[in-house]
Amino acid sequence: MKLVHLSIGTIGVCLVGIVALLTLSLWSFDRIQTQQAELGDLVTLKSQIDNLSVASDNLLLYTPDPALWQAYLANARDIQQHLLTYSDTQPSAQRAAYHIDQLIESIERVYEQTGEAALSPAIDGIGPLEIPLRAHVVMSQVANHGIALDATVDELLIERQRAIHRNSTRVMVVLMTAALLFGVLCVLAFALIYWRIAGPTRELAKTIRQIRAGDPRARAVVCGSDEIADLAHTLNALLDQQHRASDRIQQQQIALTEQAQLLQIGGEVARFGGWSVDLATSQCHWSDMVAEIHGRPHGYSPKVEEGISYYAPEYRDRIRDVFTQCAQLGVPYDEELQIINAQGERRWVRTIGVPLRNDQGHIVRVQGAFQDITERVSLEARLRQSQQLESIGQLTGGIAHDFNNLLTVIMGNAELLAEQLPEDSELHLLTAMILKGAHRGADLTHHLLAFARKQPLAPSLVDINALVGHMCHLLQRTLGEHIRVELHCAAALWPVLVDPAQLESALLNLALNARDAMTPGGRLIIETTNTELDQDYAQAQGNVTPGLYVQITVSDDGCGIPPENMEHLFEPFFTTKETGKGTGLGLPMVYGFVKQSNGHIMIYSEPQRGTTVKMYFPRVATMDTPEISPQSQPPTTQTTQGSTILVVEDDAMVRRYVESQLLSLGYQVVSARNGPQGLDILQHRPDIDLLFTDMVMPGGMTGCDLADRARAIRPDLRVLYTSGYTETAVVHHGRLDLGGQLLSKPYRREELAAKLQAALSNLPTDGP
Amino acid sequence: MAAIPSLRPSLARKVVYWLMVITLVLAIFSVMGCSPATVDHPPIRILGVTYLGDLPTLVAKEQGIFARHGLTTEVTFELSGKDNLQILHNGGTEFALMAPSPFVLDHLADDGSSPEDAPVILANLVHSTRLNQVVVLVESGIHAAKDLPGRRVGLVRGTNADYLWWLLTGFHRLDINTMEIIDTPIDRLGDALTTGTIDAAVIWEPWTTRLRETLGQQLQYLADGDIYTGQWVLVTTRRLVHEQPELCQQVLMAYGDAIAFIEQFPQAALQMHADHAGTSVDVLSDEQDLGLFALTLNWSLLAELQQGIEWARAMQAEGATRESNILSWIEAEPLRTVAPGAVGIPSLPTKDTLP
Lengths: 768, 355
Known about the structure:
The complex is a heterodimer. Chain A is built from 19 helices and 19 strands. Chain A has helices at 3-61, 66-84, 91-114, 133-212, 227-270, 288-293, 304-309, 313-329, 374-420, 426-451, 464-479, 500-517, 535-541, 563-566, 586-596, 652-664, 675-684, 703-713, 749-761, and strands spanning 272-278, 283-286, 333-340, 346-357, 363-372, 460-462, 484-489, 496-498, 523-533, 547-556, 600-606, 610-618, 644-648, 668-672, 690-694, 718-723, 731-732, 735-736, 740-744. Chain B has a six-stranded mixed beta sheet with strand order 2-1-3-10-4-11, with helices on both faces. A five-stranded mixed beta sheet of chain B has the order 7-6-8-5-9, with helices on both faces.
């Protein structure tokens, strides 16, 4: 029962009790009043009887007058009737009434004996009994005292009766008032209890309902300082504490969620997950990512043996050994192994395991991390390959540079000898053989420099579709009719800045490789399209700049490339062709050209299906596009002989060779062995017409630096560069610096003469 | 209220006394506040007697009890009830206090020609055997009633002293012819006794005290003086009862309160009487019993009246042989209204209330 109902019920019972108590009190009071009235009536009756008795005595002493006698009789009869009213309940009243008759009869008997004189004035005697005066006086005196005594006692009795009546009335009133006050106090007490308990309790219940309904700000109303208020205060404090704890938990949950999301993101990005094995049951517990790496649905958790069975056969013993050592000896492990997932794909994984001990120090669980590192391993392999190619390129470039210097001297001197020896002489033949061998060496070094991305390029804005279209006819004739060449060009192809000769050379190389891989009836497909290499692809490849590219794809349906050869394709001199049919420099040259052109190359091949080579060249924005050089103009006939040329060359042998060649061509020659010496000469020799400088020189000042400082002194100074290979300092944005010409080592005498003539005449040349 | 120097109460009694005084004062104020408006009519004249039996009248006057009951009174004290009755007959007063003796003689002498003006008793106030005494000088040689024959006795004829003398002689079977009765005013009886004009005197308070103060141990009370039980009645006219019954009731209630005061403070009441009578309260306290003060109408009064009739017949008083109706001499209704228990006499039929 609710407190409010209990309180109301109690108040109701109290009210009923008060009414009942008042009713009982009134009934009791009425009963007492009635009994007191009866008692008072009896006392009065007794007093009347006493008076009647006294009157009877008096009537014996004094003769009454008739009126007094009749009054006496009437009084006696009244008393008698009064007594008879009690006869029903009090038998003694009947006897008392009978005695009154006896009393009256006794007096009448006296009067009858004394005759009628008794009722007349007693003149001769005093009273009807003729009592002597002495006795009469005494009896009267005694009677008077008796009357006085009776009257006094009666008065006393009446007073006492009244007093008792008053007291009883007062007691009853007091009792009734006390009962009423008690009842009212009970009602007020219960009402107060109801007000002090039920009201606040209802408020507390209301607050609790609000809390249950989800109102976190609900608080109990605190009234006063009683126990209920303490309870409400305590509840509020508890709610505050719970609210704070809830806030903390919520914040922690948010943090945990964020952490979990970050962990999930990290796991998804890094393909990283967790696992554990209950050694008692050999049951694995995989995170979703671990299951995903295994090619299993989320929530999949196998037994230990099944988990081990996913490892590639060559790694199963290893993982079993390290897991066993961890489970039995507590030795943690960190292994990079291969698994074969449910789809049959090989994946490189990194698995880390640590033991988990119970309170007794026993190993009860092995747990750890599991990461799919296939991409990383692949990237590392590509990086290794790239680094390897870079190392080979640097080595090759360095050798080719020095070798070109040697070839320059050899070729130059051989040409001089050939000019001076008769053509029919045996020495002339030997000289011709020297020149031929030197030219072959120059071709070789040219290929090596191309691979090493150190060949001099003359990039220009090229319409790839036009170039490829032109090449397509050439290729068809080169490859023969048994190979069908198809061309698919995308419309609105972006312009690219590339050396067109080198691009043609690359396409030719790829086509020849395709021809060698195909059987008659094969098909060579060349496609061009615009494409974008995104950040992910760039990161995955490791050495690619994300951006917009023009893609040139060369595909064949030949025998394809075995997977084990894929990583060696760009290595110089690696070839699967028969001896003498391939130099092993074709794909390295293409690789070096593409990379030197800031592009990207990828080869996809499947054995017996064919090979696809994709070359990517970066798009050139139109505003950055340089003006296409005007077409070659015929060389001027203006003679330049007699001009003064400053030769700056660090290699003394080459410097002497150049001096002799220039002198033989009719030029004035001034030589310097490095940049500062050349610059000093320029400051003192204003007659110098052209600066012929090597690009790469020791001492910190390159040929380009020298040219810049020389132009500061002599803005009109002509410059001709020469180099065993070109560095990025020579080629800016794929082009030679303005006002400069480049003569690549080794060069022939005619090439030197032409370059000098062009430089002094300020004419463009066909190429480096 | 007069001072009460004789009281030597303990602390508790003093506290009770002051509590009662405070209660009484509060009751007085409450009664004054609750009582009906003071009747605006001429003062009510009440004639008392300087007599110990008339102590209620003195107390009511001195304590302002009449005024407390809404009565404007003019209270005077005469020498005897006989005088008061005469003044009542003359219309000189509305209420008179007296002994039954002169009242009986007066009624017996009345021919009934003017029943409305006849005096009627409203209540008896006292019942005492000490109020009237037969005093002698020690040197007179009178030691008992039997020594009185041949002697001269002074008294006031027609008063209760005369009635006492009749009872005394009857009780002791004295031959009244052997003694000389000298009718002497009450205020001269002392001198008559000391001068030897009389040998014995029948007197009442306060004259007994005054003689005691004067004569000291020379004064002797005759031992059989208590043969007479003195009563003192409040008398008015029947007309007043019929015309102003409420007035009679108010007067009776005032007397009731005065008697209650006497019951509660007897010493204070005695002091009032001593002060009023000019006597010593010490002598009064030693010699006098206050008696039983109460408002009553009972057979004692009827017996007194009947015996008074017998006395009147014996004295051959005027109209003594005339048939009487003593119940008609009493108007019991006012007292029955005020104090029903105090009335112990039968009531007459209405037609019999008039003689």
